Amino acid sequence: MINKYLMIHNDIVEKIEAGELAFNSLLPSEHELKDHYNTSRETIRKALNLLSQNGYIQKIRGKGSIVIKSKKVDFPVSGLTSFKELTTKMGKKHRTIVHELSLVRPEQHIQSQLSLSSKDFVWQVFRVREIDGENVILDKDYLNKKFVPELTREVCENSIYEYLENDLQLNISFAKKEIIVEEPTSEDRRLLDLDGFHNVVIIKNYVYLDDASLFQYTESRHRPDKFRFVDFARRNHV
């Protein structure tokens, strides 16, 4: 049998997604919800905490719980889709802001991620991704100069993958991905709209060409309420 707090959570989610509880409106108070669902205040608090964790509400001290925008972008974990391709497909208003583009010798951490030496060069690209007027992704890209001899700010503002495939004729083949959740850094808080959020979802990408050459390492740092990380899996009998 489903736990009472999960039932309450699911009921409120349905009302938010159906528009019965409007974005930016206040939920009823804990006392009113307790009476409505005929349960304890502790159960209501569990349901509200889960709603907050899942990005449906923002709890504001002294005010209560506010419904926040909850329609998430499906982010295909197993695919290799550029930000431009993803947001264009979803019909989202988007913008890329380049905060850094430089050709540098890699620090030790990047050397280990890309299997490089201190004598090699990498393009270091930091970009903020804006969706519907909010800064929700910080992409930190490192590309081996051996494979990407030139890179411009204009390319980085548009689509690096379009440039690599169409202009440089590189065949991007596959990626190894790692997903972790961490507390935001001071850089995350400076560049992203993270008021009220205590975690960021980080996807680390190791991207390879069709000859299995590792040419790119990326840390894509996401605000947790905007994305639903999805995959398709088929059961294989062994």
Automatic annotation (TrEMBL):
Coiled coil: none annotated. It comes from the Bacteria. Pfam families: GntR (PF00392), UTRA (PF07702). GO terms for molecular function: DNA binding; DNA-binding transcription factor activity. SMART domains: HTH_GNTR (SM00345), UTRA (SM00866). SUPFAM superfamilies: Chorismate lyase-like, Winged helix' DNA-binding domain. Keywords: DNA-binding, Repressor, Transcription, Transcription regulation. One of its GO terms (biological process) is negative regulation of DNA-templated transcription. Residues 2-70 form the HTH gntR-type domain. PROSITE patterns: HTH_GNTR. The keyword Zinc does not apply. This is Trehalose operon repressor. The gene is treR.
